[in-house]
UniProtKB/TrEMBL annotation:
<keyword id="KW-1003">Cell membrane</keyword>
<feature type="transmembrane region" description="Helical">
    <location>
        <begin position="74"/>
        <end position="95"/>
    </location>
</feature>
<keyword id="KW-0249">Electron transport</keyword>
<keyword id="KW-0408">Iron</keyword>
<dbReference type="Pfam" id="PF02322">
    <property type="entry name" value="Cyt_bd_oxida_II"/>
</dbReference>
<comment type="similarity">
    <text>Belongs to the cytochrome ubiquinol oxidase subunit 2 family.</text>
</comment>
<dbReference type="InterPro" id="IPR003317">
    <property type="entry name" value="Cyt-d_oxidase_su2"/>
</dbReference>
<dbReference type="GO" id="GO:0009055">
    <property type="term" value="F:electron transfer activity"/>
</dbReference>
<protein>
    <submittedName>
        <fullName>Cytochrome bd-I ubiquinol oxidase subunit 2 apoprotein</fullName>
    </submittedName>
</protein>
<feature type="transmembrane region" description="Helical">
    <location>
        <begin position="6"/>
        <end position="32"/>
    </location>
</feature>
<dbReference type="GO" id="GO:0070069">
    <property type="term" value="C:cytochrome complex"/>
</dbReference>
<feature type="transmembrane region" description="Helical">
    <location>
        <begin position="115"/>
        <end position="137"/>
    </location>
</feature>
<feature type="transmembrane region" description="Helical">
    <location>
        <begin position="221"/>
        <end position="240"/>
    </location>
</feature>
<dbReference type="GO" id="GO:0016682">
    <property type="term" value="F:oxidoreductase activity, acting on diphenols and related substances as donors, oxygen as acceptor"/>
</dbReference>
<dbReference type="GO" id="GO:0019646">
    <property type="term" value="P:aerobic electron transport chain"/>
</dbReference>
<feature type="transmembrane region" description="Helical">
    <location>
        <begin position="247"/>
        <end position="269"/>
    </location>
</feature>
<dbReference type="GO" id="GO:0046872">
    <property type="term" value="F:metal ion binding"/>
</dbReference>
């Protein structure tokens, strides 16, 4: 098989992993003002992702590094053309990470409120802008003959891309509330379940509009099939949550995110960044890729490293599989 296709598939897999895993991290962060009735609730919510959020973000680092090595032209065009949006995402991720580490360093309520607000902002901004970025990649952007982006930042804020951003924002929000329902108990779990039902219904409406637009305007047969599967699993997640089957609900939502991202990548293939002004200027898996030798070396590295990464990630989730409860937090407070 052509190694350019293999590496397009690997990068697709890495972004699927990132959006499935860091997606619920974003949702957990955005849920703080809706579910955190007091500081103990907020600590429970944050602790559901406390041991794993930074591990989830490593998928983005690996995906970015793989993109740089396998498709340097794609990487260069993407990061030069979308630099402001990607910079905002990076700053938001830094803001969120700092807040996780510093909110508990002082006991004052005002101190914690400020860092809680930064967690919400640091989760909502990437959740929105990742959708805007990928919406523009699928839609196509103006490129010159040297594959340089010739538009402006505000050209990226078109109706289709903004709908994509709202879709990812709602998907991740619902994904996060389902994760909280899976990882907590008692009243907090019940509130998370009710919130996930309400946000899930809104997500179904918005995601259906986005997937239909994508299928009609930019899709292929297989991307349309995967979009339909994503729609079915999204409905299944909301129904399972309403019946109190939090494990099935979270699994179905993870599948929804995975199938939705896969459908977007398949709607691109064999392009990696279509040129909206002139199809001849489009970046494809051929003209954007590294040399055959580079891809061969990278393939051997991936065959060795990816199974180890997946095994470590699975082991980490197994170790921290138990629910986080108010009793745990209150017991820790009493010990101090």
């Amino acid at each position: 098989m052509d190694l350019t296709i293999v590496w397009f598939g690997i990068i697709t897999f890495l972004f699927i992993g990132y959006f499935v895993l860091d997606g619920f991290d974003f949702g957990v962060g955005m849920s703080l003002p809706f579910l955190g009735k007091d500081d103990t609730d907020r600590r429970v919510i944050i602790n559901t992702i406390g041991p794993i959020w930074d591990l989830n973000e490593t998928w983005l680092i690996v995906a970015g590094a793989s993109l740089f090595a396998a498709f340097p032209e794609w990487y260069a065009t993407l990061f030069s053309g979308f630099y402001l949006a990607l910079l905002l995402i990076l700053l938001s991720l830094i803001l969120r990470g700092v807040s996780f580490e510093y909110r508990h360093q002082r006991p004052e309520a005002a101190w914690k409120r400020r860092f809680d607000a930064m967690i919400v902002i640091g989760s909502a901004v990437p959740a929105l802008l990742w959708g805007v970025a990928f919406g523009n990649i699928v839609r196509g952007v103006p490129l010159d003959e040297g594959f340089n982006y010739t538009g402006s930042f505000f050209d990226l804020l078109n109706p289709y891309a903004l709908l994509a951003g709202v879709t990812t924002l709602l998907l991740f929000f619902t994904h996060g509330t389902l994760f909280i329902s899976l990882k907590t108990d008692g009243e907090l779990q019940q509130r998370a379940r009710r919130l996930a039902t309400r946000s899930g219904i809104l997500t179904i409406v918005v995601a259906a509009a986005f997937l239909l637009w994508t299928t009609l305007a930019y899709g292929s047969f297989w991307s349309a099939v995967l979009s339909a599967v994503a729609a079915v699993t999204l409905i299944a997640a909301v129904l399972a949550n309403a019946r109190g089957r939090e494990g099935w609900a979270f699994g179905a939502m993870a599948a929804t995110v995975a199938f939705a991202v896969l459908s977007l990548f398949l709607s691109l293939f064999p392009d990696v960044m279509p040129a909206s002004n002139n199809p001849a200027n489009s970046l494809t898996i051929v003209n954007a890729s590294s040399s055959a030798y580079t891809l061969q070396v990278m393939t051997w590295v991936a065959l060795i490293s990816l199974p180890l990464i997946l095994a470590y990630q699975g082991w980490t989730y197994w170790v921290f599989r138990k629910r986080v409860t108010r009793a745990h937090i209150e017991g820790a407070q009493a010990a101090h």
